Amino acid sequence: MNFTNSLAKWYLQNKRDLPWRNTQNPYFIWLSEIMLQQTRVAQGMPYFFAFTTTFPTVFDLANASEEQVLKLWQGLGYYSRARNLHKTAQKVAFEMNGVFPKSYVELLKLKGIGEYTAAAIASFSYNEAVPVVDGNVFRVLSRYFDIETDIAIASTKKEFSELAFELMDKNNPGLFNQAIMEFGALQCVPKSPNCLSCVLNSGCLALQKKKVNLLPVKSKKLKVRNRYFNYFVFLDEQENTIIQKRSEKGIWHNLYEFPLIETERVEDFEFISKQIQEQLFIENDIISMSELNVIPQIHKLSHQHLHIKFWKVTVKGNIDIGIDYEALLQFPFPIVIYNFVEKSKNSFKN
């Protein structure tokens, strides 16, 4: 078919030289696919090299501690990916002798591997004819074939999967999957694509109907939730501080943070100082408290906007479980807290 042949030819001429494309090793392909979920290639590339250097085999990753994995993942976001990555590595290493399942259906049984990732591994590593469907694929197919089905609806994926399977070269499914994803990433981009230079422009229905910027159809996301975090940097007479592990489910699970009070809105010094007197974070008497950032820092997640303030609290004596600045840097933090710690060494001095 002209669509498939043109796509493959374009890919072979224009594809980026990415390290996970130079191998059929399912471990490396799996790592790359997990890392690139919700992440741009440029951002994910350094993490891929860091992981494959530190953990060159699935056994190395399986034998690491969760904190080691989270620390190396720090800054990549969506930390549940890292926790699932670690658990799946342990299952493959310890229960499967380090051998990844060789089919789409069996890959789906592994934690953290959904339909898209399973299809990618199965087609790239084992040449199984199963289509990948991600945002790039939705965009290319919806525009070329003028499909107006809402891609925010779960059932839509089946429609696009069936179409992709029909178009796929069954003898080389990995090439087709790589090609259509790369085409969406480089050529058929979300905003203002250069349709004049597109190899598929003669058959693209969206271009003919002047609907390129209207497709794919996607209903609006749910309203973003605003949350207000007040972090307390306690400092004793030895310049030691304390941190805690986020054990509850939700954002940043099993990462570390400073003692926290979450409020309903941005609160002033008087309100916060009263709150901290009522909390039993530590037994030491408070000497002074000050704002380290008067204007809250806004950290945007996909479904939440966090309004973050840091407060410096100096206390008498020594904190029983206090740690110094250098030790602090070794823990896995959400990137917004790690960046604060890294840039605020002087703030840790009384």
TrEMBL record:
PANTHER family, A to Z: ADENINE DNA GLYCOSYLASE (PTHR42944:SF1)
Assigned protein family: Belongs to the Nth/MutY family.
Name of the featured protein: Adenine DNA glycosylase
Cofactor note (record): Binds 1 [4Fe-4S] cluster.
Alphabetized Pfam families for the sequence: HHH, HhH-GPD, NUDIX_4
Cofactor: [4Fe-4S] cluster
InterPro entries registered for this protein in UniProt: A/G_AdeGlyc_MutY, DNA_glycosylase, HhH-GPD_domain, HhH_base_excis_C, HhH_motif, MIG/MutY, MutY_C, NUDIX_hydrolase-like_dom_sf
Gene3D superfamilies documented for this protein: Helix-hairpin-Helix base-excision DNA repair enzymes (C-terminal), Hypothetical protein, domain 2, Nucleoside Triphosphate Pyrophosphohydrolase
Keyword Iron applies: yes
GO biological processes: base-excision repair; mismatch repair
Domain HhH-GPD: 35-186
Function text: Adenine glycosylase active on G-A mispairs. MutY also corrects error-prone DNA synthesis past GO lesions which are due to the oxidatively damaged form of guanine: 7,8-dihydro-8-oxoguanine (8-oxo-dGTP).
Coiled-coil portions: none
GO terms for MF: 4 iron, 4 sulfur cluster binding; 8-oxo-7,8-dihydroguanine DNA N-glycosylase activity; adenine/guanine mispair binding; metal ion binding; oxidized purine DNA binding; purine-specific mismatch base pair DNA N-glycosylase activity
EC identifiers of the protein: 3.2.2.31
Sorted UniProt keywords: 4Fe-4S, DNA damage, DNA repair, Glycosidase, Hydrolase, Iron, Iron-sulfur, Metal-binding
Organism expressing this protein natively: Flavobacterium luteum
Reaction equations catalysed: Hydrolyzes free adenine bases from 7,8-dihydro-8-oxoguanine:adenine mismatched double-stranded DNA, leaving an apurinic site
